[in-house]
Design goal:
Elements lengths: L2 H22 L10 H43 L8 E6 L5 H22 L3 E7 L2 H14 L5 E7 L5 H14 L7 E6 L2 E3 L3 H6 L1 H4 L3 E12 L3 H22 L11 E5 H4 L2 H8 L2 E4 L3 E4 L4 H11 L3 E14 L6 H31 L1 H16 L2 H12 L4 H19 L11 H20 L6 E2 L4 E2 L6 H29 L8 H12 L1
Parallel strand pairs: 1-2, 1-4, 2-3, 6-10
Antiparallel strand pairs: 4-7, 5-10, 6-7, 8-9, 11-12
Length: 514
């Protein structure tokens, strides 16, 4: 049975289970005692699903109405909208030889095709650590018979992290004295460029005045168990919708490190380079700590703060070669979530402070929602567990049915962004919601804890053992207290936890002591 038939069979089986669930739901579930429980879940659901509906609507407006006009204008204008020089900066560290060959091969092919078509010079810069990578890249240049107008710059650095690799690369571009309209692409060492990517992306910068950077869609080629492929594909479909929605306001929520393009006058700005190389925040409890990962968030924040526009390019994609850090899906997903959500939470607090004027209203609300959703996403499960033990044992059954139904409906909307969806997507969507929320709340109180998965690098604290112990205890206490407060609030609002009868206690103490 081919993959398409298996996928269709999966959807058919899912719908049969939903139908059986619908028929078998007990009537006692709608007992008045369950009213507050269902009402609370319903109120939160209206908020969350309305938010998804708004993003889906904005995605459709952007991809079907707004962006096609920009693409038409770019294609009609031809070379007039293209920059006079393009720079491709690739960073590689501890990436397999075959992957490196594919990535640099795709960059060289795309650079040659762009130069051949438009006669515009391209400079390819490789920020690398190992001598073997340098030999491989130079050999590829010889194999492709690259013309002299496509210059190669090798930047050898110590293996001190991606931030240093990028900073050295940015300074190398600055030494090239790029023209005022120059555009630079920053590309990960595991990302392959598709055909005509340079032309399609660079042409947008002259259409939009004050456009500082763009980023693109992603598709994945995952190494390892098939379950990772499904999980990544679901994430990228969801990402495509959210990014397009926010881009309608000419902002984005991240400039992914996989492949983003920048105006060279921004990328070579010493302040920009310094922020990417050595970013940090002052936290009221954790003190000052620098960022180990999240260079893409640092560049995003700098451009956002500087008032530049940013765009998502929905009709261009980069193929990313994903290598999970562990064979176990659960271990890998949690490790990756800790890194992704840590990068997000370390930056979005200061982004919120910029206000709607800098961020634009909808992106600013979206950034705030990143903070709220980690709690609201846990509401249904938390209230259900409480209701199962205090109101009705059928609460969990209703919740399971509700999750299967709503997540499947959401997954079907992904068909507006992708040609097909898997029947497994609803489970991955729910997994990301619950496990992702727990990871977010954990990271929120431990922002200073960082780890780079590929390099296995952990940031070192300047605190003494006693001070670090007290910090860890404080993080645990704040996390526990916040979660307990969250549970108590939910129990009160759902009617599970009754308000104290102050008249009873007043009368009791009056009789005893007065």
């Amino acid at each position: 049975m081919n993959s398409s038939l298996k996928n269709l069979a999966g959807h058919f089986f899912y719908i049969l289970v939903l139908a059986a669930f619908t028929i078998s739901l007990p009537a006692s579930l709608w007992d008045p005692a369950s009213r507050d429980f269902i009402l609370l879940i319903g109120v939160i659901a209206i908020w969350r699903y309305s938010w998804w509906g708004i993003n889906l609507t904005r995605f459709l407006i952007y991809t079907k109405l707004v962006f096609p006009k920009w693409r038409y204008r770019a294609e009609k204008s031809g070379k007039d909208l293209l920059p006079s020089h393009v720079y491709l900066l690739l960073t590689s560290f501890r990436i397999g030889t075959e992957t490196t060959r594919k990535v640099y091969g795709s960059a060289i092919e795309e650079a040659m095709a762009f130069h051949r078509k438009h006669n515009i010079p391209v400079t390819l810069l490789a920020s690398i650590v190992e001598k073997s990578d340098e030999i491989l890249i130079k050999k590829l240049y010889e194999e492709f018979d690259v013309p002299n107008t496509i210059k190669l710059v090798i930047i050898r650095i110590a293996g001190t992290g991606k931030r240093d690799a990028l900073a050295y690369g940015f300074r190398a571009i600055a030494k090239e004295n790029p023209p005022a309209d120059g555009i630079a692409a920053v590309i990960d060492g595991d990302s392959l460029l598709e055909k005509d990517l340079i032309e399609k992306c660079t042409s947008l910068f002259k259409i939009h005045k004050n456009l500082g950077a763009i980023t693109t869609d992603e598709i994945c080629d995952v190494e390892g168990n098939w379950i990772f492929k499904q999980w990544y594909s679901m994430r990228f479909a969801q990402r495509h919708i959210y990014m397009s929605s926010v881009s309608l306001s000419k902002r984005v929520l991240t400039l992914t490190g996989r492949m983003s393009m920048f105006r060279t006058d921004i990328l070579t700005n010493p302040e920009f380079i310094e922020r990417v190389e050595m970013d940090w925040i002052d936290h009221w409890r954790l003190g000052r700590f620098k960022f180990l990962t999240g260079d893409d968030k640092s560049s995003w924040y700098h451009i956002l703060k500087s008032g530049y526009k940013m765009l998502y390019v929905p009709d261009v994609s980069v193929l990313t070669i994903e290598t999970p850090p562990d064979p176990s899906f659960i271990k890998s997903s949690v490790v990756l979530m800790r890194r992704w959500f840590g990068n997000m939470l370390r930056t979005n607090g200061r982004a919120i402070k910029l206000g709607p004027q800098k961020c634009n209203l909808f992106p600013w609300i979206s950034i705030i929602d990143q903070r709220l959703s980690m709690w609201t996403s846990l509401t249904g499960l938390s209230v259900t567990i409480l209701a199962t033990f205090t109101i009705t044992p059928y609460a969990f059954i209703f919740y399971l049915y509700w999750m299967m139904l709503t997540r499947y409906i959401i997954v079907l909307t992904f068909l507006t962004a992708r040609p097909s969806v898997s029947a497994l997507y609803p489970f991955f969507l729910y997994y990301n919601q619950i496990v992702g929320s727990f990871v977010k709340t954990y990271v929120l109180f431990r922002l200073d804890k960082q780890k780079w998965t590929r390099q296995n690098t952990i940031i070192k604290s300047n605190k003494g053992k006693k001070e670090q112990f007290l910090t860890n205890v404080g993080s645990f206490y704040m996390h526990l207290f916040s979660f307990l407060l969250f549970i108590v609030a939910l129990a009160s609002m759902s009617g599970i936890l009754k308000s104290p009868d102050f008249n009873f206690w007043f009368n009791f103490f009056s009789e005893q002591f007065l």
